[in-house]
Design brief:
Blueprint lengths: L1 E2 L10 E4 L6 E2 L21 E4 L6 E3 L9 E2 L15 H16 L16 E3 L9 E4 L2 E4 L4 E5 L2 E2 L1 E2 L8 E2 L9 E8 L13 E7 L7 E7 L3 E9 L3 H5 L3 E11 L9 E14 L3 E16 L3 E2 H5 L13 E19 L2 E18 L14 E20 L5 E24 L3 E26 L2 E18 L9 E17 L2 E11 L4 H6 L8 E14 L2 E12 L3 E4 L4 E4 L3 E13 L4 E14 L15 E10 L4 E10 L2 E2 L7 E2 L2 E11 L3 E8 L7 E9 L8 E8 L4 E9 L1
Parallel strand pairs: 1-6, 10-15
Antiparallel strand pairs: 2-3, 2-4, 4-5, 7-8, 8-9, 10-11, 12-13, 14-15, 16-17, 16-44, 17-18, 18-19, 19-20, 20-22, 21-43, 22-23, 23-24, 24-25, 25-26, 26-27, 27-28, 28-29, 29-30, 30-31, 31-34, 32-33, 34-35, 35-36, 36-37, 37-40, 38-39, 40-41, 41-44, 42-43
Length: about 725
């Protein structure tokens, strides 16, 4: 099973006999096996092959071995079929629908493909966004594991926050697959995968060359080029190579212009080596710099000192760069056995100037801080996959192993003024952190049952060389085992029940681990989901789940002060609901509703709220794709009011924001307009309950500090395809 144009294998395509509602799905290699005798059909029986985003095929096989080439086509929800394999495919199907229908403006916004996941920017556009998911204020990545093409995005023991996940090195047009899962139920994902994981994959080939220009309000401009480097003859032989580059600039809506600029370049090469090997090589480079207005206190706006888009310290801002290289060799031992070996390397630089308390600690020079680091990250991962069918069982075995080693240089937290002068170093040192892991995962399938049992072993070692002290602390290390158990039962072609359960963990910052002599290095998270996947009508797909999550130790990383505040045991429970509905051949609707009740277990009732944790969110919209070439969407996102402190005496205000996208797409060109905040509502993108002091204030004040959300923002685009 392959894509006719790119010759890439298609995983999760659905194959069934014409008079049988149950069938099979293709594996990573695109292979499938379906038993004709069990259907008691005649030799003239037809196979029906469907896959989201491709034309459905019907053919009458005249041989036991087939090569099926699928052509891209419109999205059709009738192609989604509930089968015993659907537990693994349900989120895959929903994300595939959303990627085909919903326009994505930036790489970081790809995270919004995950139902219930919200992001917020509060430092000039170049900083990693704040993430919210399943009753978590994830900060910048403390409780979500994010990877791209197998390369970790999260930075452990980062200068600004544990698990810092900056995705701006990705070019959004290249992302073709968003795999995600909520909860700690997946053996492939270890550290930080407590609220869930997101795994992104870029295209192995591009359909056409593209030149795109975008321009809009606030001096915003973007240029993109995607160039196929090989001819059709080479592509027919299974070799693909392309190069893509992106430049972006914007001043933003702020009084203090951001001068935000970003440059990306990305290259990918895939080729067959012999009959059974495939090599994929990636290289990318990214750099960005910006000015920022930061968070401002409500009293400064009310008094008229600044307006909503003003700044107290106009010298905030930052710089970051990232270089990635990766080589992955996939070996097909036979149709049911695959070996994957990947080696990756990242070089990273980060520098950020912030001021959250203004003149609280230093009434003369102000409280501006600088967080800075340089980093090398090296990793290797191995994966063995085998499928077998002994007796009446289908068994898939997946075994993995690998390591990740991070080395930072001059991880710094310092007190500065006007970005230029260092008044004092609070932290300065080098970090070495290593994570070795192994995993085993077995999936047993028989009739309507599918049972998945897995376990993961992680060993972490922490070293910190403190350049501000002559007394060095010893290394700390610890290991953890994370078992998983997932069960599903398929009642019929319309209903499937599932139970997911498992243990995960998140690590603490290496500086705190060594200082506290290894205390609570790897606190565990235990969780469970009870859910149902429904297809009550041919054009309607619904996924609903109730869930529960217990954290052995919640971390609130205050990177701005260089400390970690353990907040004790926590528990969360909630409800997730997602629906996708196709009204006709060109009109689609979607809805996501997410409820959560996050609470501290070690605080008195009424004082046990978790600050900024979302309790009720919703997203949805209407998408259209006409044969004439007109396409677009109207979408909304809703964040309910939520507690800003433990007593819930201060509220972080909620918001509802609507966006519009409208395009006209033809074979050789596309023109369109994208509007953020269509109704021009006044909203706060991020909010914090902070103690601060403005210049000449006699005493500090604790109140909401916020970053204003984008006002009405229109952007035009024009693309040429060749």
């Amino acid at each position: 099973m392959i894509d006719k144009q790119s010759k890439e294998p298609l995983e999760m395509a659905y194959i069934r006999w014409a008079n049988n509602s149950q069938g099979v799905t293709s594996n990573k290699q695109g292979y499938f096996s379906i038993n004709k005798k069990s259907t008691a059909l005649t030799d003239t029986s037809a196979l029906i092959i469907s896959f989201i985003g491709f034309h459905t095929q019907q053919l009458k096989p005249n041989t036991s071995s087939l090569l099926i080439e699928m052509e891209k086509g419109p999205v059709n929800l009738q192609e989604i079929v509930i089968t015993p394999q659907s537990a693994a495919a349900s989120f895959h199907a929903i994300s595939k629908i959303d990627l085909n229908l919903q326009p994505v403006r930036s790489a970081q916004e790809i995270l919004r493909i995950v139902p219930g996941l919200f992001i917020g920017q509060h430092q000039g556009g170049g900083k990693a966004e704040q993430i919210f998911l399943r009753g978590f204020d994830v900060d910048h990545g403390t409780d979500i594991n994010i990877s791209a093409d197998g390369i970790p995005v999260n930075m452990v023991s980062h200068a600004h926050g544990q698990g810092y996940a900056d995705m701006h090195f990705l070019i959004p047009e290249l992302v073709t697959n968003v795999d995600y899962g909520k909860g700690p139920y997946y053996t492939q994902y270890g550290n930080l995968a407590t609220a869930g994981y997101v795994s992104l994959n870029t295209a192995n080939s591009i359909d056409k060359n593209t030149i795109k220009l975008e321009g809009g309000q606030f001096n915003t401009m973007r240029a993109l080029a995607m160039i196929d480097l090989l001819n059709n003859r080479q592509k027919q032989k299974g070799t693909n190579a392309y190069l893509a580059s992106e430049f972006m600039y914007s001043d933003g809506p702020f009084v203090s212009q951001q001068h935000f600029n970003r440059f990306n370049i990305f290259g990918k090469f895939n080729t067959k080596i012999g009959a059974n090997n495939k090599l994929s090589v990636i290289a990318s480079a990214f750099n960005s710099q910006w000015n920022a207005s930061g968070q401002i206190p409500e009293r400064a706006v009310k008094s008229g000192l600044v307006n909503r888009f003003g700044a107290i310290d106009s010298t905030e801002g930052g710089y970051t760069s990232r270089l990635n290289t990766s080589a992955k060799l996939t070996t097909y031992l036979n149709h049911s056995t695959t070996l994957e070996n990947q080696l990756y390397y990242t070089h990273y630089n980060f520098s950020l100037h912030s001021n959250f308390t203004f003149f609280l600690n230093d009434p003369v020079n102000g409280d501006q801080i600088r967080q800075r680091e340089a980093r090398d990250m090296l990793g290797y991962q191995f994966k063995f996959t085998n499928t077998a069918a002994p007796g009446q069982w289908n068994i898939q075995s997946v075994y993995g192993a690998g390591f990740r080693a991070d080395q930072t240089y001059n991880s710094e937290l310092s007190h500065t003024i006007n970005r230029n002068t260092v008044l004092a170093y609070k932290q300065l040192g080098d970090i070495q952190e290593a994570n070795a892991f192994g995993s085993a995962d077995e999936t047993f399938e028989k009739d309507r049952w599918q049972i998945n049992v897995g376990s993961r072993f992680d060993y972490l070692n922490f070293h910190y060389y403190n350049k501000l002290s002559s007394d060095q602390l010893p290394d700390q290390h610890k290991w953890i085992v994370s078992p998983k158990l997932n069960i599903q039962y398929t009642l019929n072609a319309k209903t499937q029940l599932y139970l997911k359960s498992g243990k995960g963990f998140h690590s603490n910052d290496a500086r705190v681990v060594t200082l506290n002599k290894g205390y609570e290095i790897l606190p565990a998270a235990w969780g469970a989901d009870l859910g149902v996947l429904l297809k009550p009508a041919p054009n309607l797909v619904v996924n609903a789940a109730i869930w529960w999550l217990y954290m052995q130790q919640e971390f609130v990383y205050v990177g701005d002060e260089g400390v970690v505040e353990p907040s004790g045991k926590t528990k969360r429970m909630g409800i997730d609901l997602s629906g996708r509905y196709q009204l006709n051949s060109w009109l689609f609707a979607d809805l996501n509703v997410n409820l959560a009740r996050p609470r501290s277990m070690e605080a008195a009732k009424g004082e046990n709220y978790i600050p900024l944790a979302p309790i009720f969110t919703g997203t949805g919209g209407i998408n259209w794709q006409l044969k004439s070439g007109f396409n677009g969407s109207i979408r909304y996102r809703y964040m309910h009011n939520r507690p800003a402190n433990e007593e819930n005496s201060v509220t972080a205000k909620g918001y509802t924001v609507a966006d519009l996208s409208f395009n006209y797409t033809q074979k050789k060109y596309e023109v369109g307009i994208a509007i953020e905040n269509l109704l021009n509502v006044q909203w706060n993108e991020t909010q914090f309950y902070t103690e601060s002091r403005l210049k000449n204030e006699p005493a500090p004040v604790s109140e909401i500090h916020f970053t204003p959300g984008t006002p009405f923002f229109a952007k035009l685009k024009c693309a040429i395809f060749f």
